[in-house]
Predict the 3D structure of the following.
Amino acid sequence: MKKYIEEIVRQAKVRARQESDAEPEPGLISPVQWPVNCDVKQGLEGAITGQTEIGYVNGPKGWLIYRGLDCFDLSEHSTFEETSYLLLFGKLPSKTEMDEFMAKLNSYRTLPDEALRLLDSLPVKSAHPMSTLRTIVSALGMMDPNSDVTTVKAETEVAIKLIAQIVTITGAIARIRKGEKPLAPDTSLSLAADLVRMMTGKMPNEEDARIMDICLILHADHGMNASTFSAMVVNSSLSDMYSSIVAGIASLKGPLHGGANEAVLADLEEIGSVDNVQAWYSLSKVGKRRVMGFGHRVYKAYDPRARILHPLAELLSRRDPNVRRLYDTAAELEKWVVGDLGKEKGIFPNVDFYSGIVYTAMGIEKAMFTPIFAVSRMSGWGARALEYLKNNRIFRPRAVYVGPLHVEYVPIEERS
Ligand code: ACO
C-alpha cells in the first residue's frame, strides 16, 4: 500500500531535478574561518552563525539535505524516528542502534501525571495550542530533577525524551480542545501513527500513518531558521534543553514562521472556491497583503518539501469534497502567485502551503497544525542545540545605537 506513496515522492524528486539545473552549485559548504566576512542585511539575512554537519539548504536550487541525505530519499525510505536518530547522532543507525533508540523513545512516551493534571487546570480550549505546548514543555523541565545538568550527555537524553513527549502532549491538547480525555500513547505504533490516533481518537489507516511520517521527516530540520536559532541562542547561555525548546516553540508559533500553515488554511477558507481566487489575489495585491505559505528567506526556487506535500495533498483531497475544494483553491492560488511573483521575486509555495490540507484531510483541526510542526522540528532543535553545545560560545551580537548621546538628567519636578 505504501508503494504508491513512495512513487509520488520519487516523481516529485524527478520534477525537482528537471526544473533545477543538473549540477547544483553548492554554496556555504566550506569550514568557517573566523572572523568571517559576509554581507548582513536586515533580519540577519546573510549572517553566518557557525558551521554545522546537520543539514544543508541550497535555496537557489531547492535542495534540502540532512547529514548528506536528500529529503526526497529520506521521505521515500526512512521514518521520523530514524531521521531523528540521523539528525541527533550523525549517521543512519544500525539495526541494534535503532532498536535501542526506539526502546528509549517508547520508555519516554507517557507523560508524568503532574503534567496531565496541569493540562487539566489550564484554559486549553481557549488558548492557542502552541501556548499550551510551550507551557507544558516548560513545566516538564520543572518536573525533571536533572533538567539543569547541561552536559552534552544529559541534554541528549532530554532531547530524546522531548521527541517522544511532545507527540503525547500534542495528542492530549487536541483531545482536550474537543472536550475529550487525552489518550495514553500506544508504543506498538510509530510516533506518526500514534500522533494521528491521539489527536483524532481514531486509529489511522496505513495511508495517513505513512503520510504523517513523511510530514514529520520533512519538517524536522531546516538550517538557521528563526526557531532553531532561538533554541540555540538560549542553549548557548548554558540554560538548559527544556528552556531552549520552549524558545523554539515560542518562535515557531508566529505566522511568519511555523504559524503560516494555520494562516494558509484561514486564507483558503476565506477565498472559498477556485472561482474567487483571481479576485482575492488582486485584492491582496492592492492591500499589499502577503500570501501565506509563499516566499522564503532562503528558497528562491520551489521548496522541495512543498514539491512532496503538493501531490500528497492532492491524493488525500480525493476522499472528501470539502478538502478537494481547499486543494483546488490552493492549486489555483499557486498558479496566480507563481505566475506573478515566481520569476520576478523567487516567490514559490513553501512547506506551509500544502501541509494544512494534508492535516485537514486527516480530520485534524487548523489550530493544531503548528504543534504538529513542533513535534517534528523538536529533532532539529535538539540536534542543532547539541551540536553547538559541543563547541559552545555564547551568542552575543550587537545592535547599532542610533539614539541621542549625553542627555542631561532632569529631575521629575522640572520636566515639562
Ligand atoms: N506574498 C507576497 N509577496 C511576498 C511574500 C508573500 N508571501 N513573501 C515575500 N514577498 C515579497 C516581499 O513583498 C518583498 O517584495 P519587495 O522586494 O518588492 O519589497 C520580497 O518578496 C522579499 O520579501 P522579504 O520580506 O524581504 O522576505 P523575507 O526573507 O524577509 O521573509 C518570509 C520571508 C517571512 C517567509 C516571507 O516570504 C513571508 O512573509 N511569507 C509569508 C509567511 C510564510 O509563509 N511563512 C512561512 C515561511 S516557511 C517557515 O518558516 C516554515
In short: The longest helix spans residues 152-177. The chain has two domains: 2-260+362-389, 261-361.
